[in-house]
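Components:
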Amino acid sequence: MTRGSIEIEEVSVSFEDVPVLSEVSARAEAGQLVGLVGPNGSGKTTLLRTISGTLAPDSGQVRVDGDDVHALSSKAASQRIAVVPQDTSISFSFDVRQIVGMGRTAHRGRFEATTDEDHAAVEAALERTATQQFAERSIDAISGGERQRVLLARAIAQETPALLLDEPTASLDVNHQIETLQLVRSLVDDGTAAVAAIHDLDLAARYCDSLVLLSEGEVVATGSPESVLTESTISTTFDVRSVVGTEPVTGTASVRALEDRDPPRGRRVHVLGSGTDASRVIAALDGAGYDLSLGPVPAGDTAVSAARSLGSETVVTPPLSTPSAEELRTATERARTASAAVLVTSEHGVDPAVVRDVLEDAEPLVIVQADPSEEPRSDGIENQDVRTTGPETVVDAVTAVLTDADASETAPSDPEYDDESRNETDATVPGSGEQ
Amino acid sequence: MAWTAGLVALLFVTVVVSATIGPVEIAALDVVRAVLDELVVPVGATVDAGSVAVGPLGSVPYPSPTMEYRPLFGLDVADTTRTIVVNIRLPRILLGAIVGFALASAGTVMQGFFRNPLADPSIIGVSSGAAVGAVATITIPGFAVVDLRLAAFVGALVTAFGVYAMATEGGRTPVATLLLAGVAVQTFLGAVISYLLLQAGDSLEEAVYWLMGHLHYSTWDHVVFALPVALFGFALLAVYTRDLNVLLLGEEDAHYLGIEVERTKRILLAVSSLITAAAVAVSGVIGFVGLVVPHIMRLLVGPDHRILLPTSAVAGAAFLVAADTLARSGAAELPVGIVTAAIGAPFFLFLLLRREVNGL
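Structure:
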């Protein structure tokens, strides 16, 4: 496939005096997939339409392979850029091969018949997208995922050095999302320069070489997915609290938006654990409205950044060293005075000795482990009120143990706990009160 | 290809059969013989010295060539048969074929252009414009000097251009605006026609007869007028069939695929309006051919305009010849517009009820 590049230089577009894009610059080199991310109405689609030449910018330039797109004829532009539109309503029932064949329009003269080259390009595109099995079917008789692949095949048949995609995965099932983006990725790896508007931030982080974060028509951040997708950029552009972690399988950035909290219940949960498992527990508990404290955890752990981004109190130890006596004392105090404690177990989790110390007086205690049906990894804990649960159900488990504790509070006094005094202590703990 | 060939054969059969039918029965073979006998080959040319008088300058000489022809076959055909077939029935049949051909072509293009199954050749007001021109020459005494065909043709083109100009802003012509402007202008011209009819007096009957659409007064003149426009227009449209296919994906997609959308729309609109205007000018407002024939052909051959346009055109020709034969073979001749609508509407409803037009 030909090599290309897309250069967007200070492009401004307005509709009837309302600015939609202001001085947007970005570039995609050959072999690069650049993701446009941003909330609805941030200008992603407008930018794509400007790059494709459909919209003329008020100022600025879009160059593909060095040529100003808006100075080219539609045919010349279509030999350079192919577009996979978001939603094509095809009202007359062409079959799939005919639709893909239309990708060759820009390569044919008005009086030229279909050439062998056209045939070869169409068949190659059908094969690459695995659409040849329904090439004879009518476009309105196939599923949405198949239709998306057909539109991609049409763009492939166009044999352009540059490719634009508008939400290629919107309204697709997860399996089709992955299939589609893998296909795009393989085209890009063959040397195509591609720009795609993708609203799923995790997918964008996973498949794009770099991201351009748009908000209200302006570039907020641009660069590698990790540098663009941060809690602060997401909270300013999407107006939502989030946790950015690392997707455990792909190792790419993963954004989790959090619900607005319920009115604070003034209940703090102490979490002991590290890594992404602990981060997810922290995010889930935060989403459910609990205040949090964490520790001790080594500096640099993902759980630390998750907890800090949520404004939780964290006991941090220097990396690769055991917690000092002071740190242990603080953490133990936080665990003891919390309404409940959660231990997140994992392969290389917290040192069992530290666990025993910190959680000695922490009750009720919820132990989170990947497979709750296994023998609890008690690490020698001798607490009385222990419940074991899986990572997905941690919020339910914490809520349940607290409800039980509340019930026993009104029941005839149980010498084992003293919830009342613990709650009183809670209220005085800094960082745990109302938010 | 097979479809087109088959339909062309059907058209020929329809024409021949149609020519046998009438007050005087003529055998099919005699029809063929009469037509073949008209074919001539040039055998030579002589040049005479002609001269033309130019006022006071006297006469100016000029060479006057005369071609000599010889019948190709030299068949023995009775004079009455020859007159009936060649001078009476054939112009009417051929004109019917041309009008059907033109209307079905324009209808196919308009339905694709508007991506709307209800579009017909007159959707942007071509027929209404033609009707105003024609009715004006019939009903307004001072206008009678204007040739009716010419008035209808010009009225049609002026209307089409006016609607296009009104719907265009900044070099773009949104299809929805065009459609609405067409409807509004048709309504307005409808009022004009009604008013003219109200004032028509004695000429009312003639005007109404024209409005119903008929092929009654067909002559070779009409054929010579309409045939070149229809063929030329069809050839232009045929060149744009692939673009029309791509336009069906939507204008934005068409642009992505390399179509100059606005220019293509302008050409398609202008050419289909032109051939519709030519058809309406010679036959009046014949409805339903341009609406129903493309639908039927789309069901049979699919949406690809490279096949759909020629098959629709030929089928439209055969359909109108057959309908006109029916119109003139009754005890009293009916305007063919009544026949096409009376056959076309129920047939269309039949397709609709069988849900076969859903895929359009």
